[in-house]
Design a protein that fits this description.
The chain folds into two domains: 254 residues, Glycerol-3-phosphate (1)-acyltransferase; 26 residues, no CATH class. Helix 1 packs across helix 5 and helix 2 packs across helix 3. It is of the alpha/beta class. Strands 1, 2, 3, 4, 5, 6, 7, 8 and 9 form a nine-stranded mixed beta sheet that branches. It is globular and about 70 Å long. 40% of the residues lie in helices and 18% in strands.
Length: 299
């Protein structure tokens, strides 16, 4: 598979240019909403059949390449029923998109999920529209307008979920400080009502040959029209950056503890070291009248 992962608008722009684009886009969308001009945006038409197939494929693919996918018991998703939901995540790996599909199926099975994607890539991989991806033209204020219009349309329904990776690039989980592009802050500034929730993932090795995927949800921020005026877009962005960083730090502590009991098992994949070594371990266990498990430590 190629690395056509979700992205926030403003990818690869200088910070000053991004701020200008975001501000101009926000002003344009705001002026449209106040002028009576139509601002509705047609959302991607998702194919349940194709989406279910790709989610099944993702689960199978993760099982083949990882020992487990676990979610922190201390960082489970909040109860957001009746509210549109924005999940914003770190972007640690190519695997993020597959992990998010599985997490969505596990915790938000009745929500309809959408995610922005570079418009040029989406034109090349049209099938991704059937999965809920919508195109955003990069490096332009028109692209920023596309993002805000579509995101606002998504958040009109309490049954929808918007997923974004506002770092807009692959970033190591230890990178500090965490820095976002401006799109998420401007979306919150214009928000009517939504829950903004950080969710982070780490890919670590414990006792097994295959790595673990660890996930943790962070503290939600409730965005209402009444409290938006208290912060500007930059302040919202800084708040979300801090929330994501705090969630990453909490997950890092759990990852270092290497205790499987701290997590809820979502997927269990492969274990053991190979047929020869595992066969020898099996034989020793039989000779000692002991039970045999391929796993070494964390179950």
């Amino acid at each position: 598979m190629t690395t056509q992962t979700p992205t926030d608008f403003g990818l690869c722009q200088p910070a000053g240019a991004l701020s200008a684009c975001a501000v101009e886009a926000s002003n344009v969308v705001r002026s449209e909403s106040g002028s009576g001009r139509p601002q509705s945006k047609t959302l991607p038409r998702i194919s349940p059949l194709l989406l279910n197939w790709f989610t099944w494929y993702s689960r199978r693919y993760i099982r083949r390449h990882f020992h487990s996918l676990r979610v922190s018991l201390a960082g489970l998703p909040p109860d957001s029923r009746g509210w549109p939901l924005v999940l914003y995540s770190n972007h640690a790996s190519w695997w993020d998109a597959l992990v998010c599909l599985v997490v969505k199926q596990e915790f938000f099975p009745h929500r309809t999920a959408f995610a922005p994607m570079d418009a040029a890539l989406l034109e090349r991989y049209k099938m991704f529209r059937k999965f809920g991806f919508f195109g955003v033209a990069q490096d332009s204020w028109q692209g920023a307008i596309q993002f805000l219009r579509t995101a606002e349309a998504i958040l009109e329904s309490p049954d929808n979920l918007l997923f974004v990776t506002p770092q807009s690039r692959f970033a190591d989980v230890r990178e500090r400080p965490v820095r976002f592009k401006a799109g998420l802050g401007h979306l919150a500034l214009r928000g009517e009502h939504a829950f903004f929730v950080p969710v982070v993932a780490e890919y670590v090795f414990w006792e097994e040959r295959l790595p673990e995927i660890l996930v943790r949800f962070g503290e939600p921020v409730e965005v209402r029209a009444g409290n938006c005026a208290a912060l500007d877009a930059k302040s919202w962005t800084n708040l979300f950056e801090r929330k994501l960083m705090e969630t990453q730090d909490a997950l890092a502590v759990e990852a270092q503890r290497r205790n499987g009991n701290d997590f809820q098992m979502m997927l269990r994949g492969g274990a053991g070291q190979g047929r020869v070594y595992d066969g020898w371990r099996w034989l020793k266990a039989k000779l000692r009248c002991e039970s045999f498990s391929k796993e070494h430590g964390n179950k």
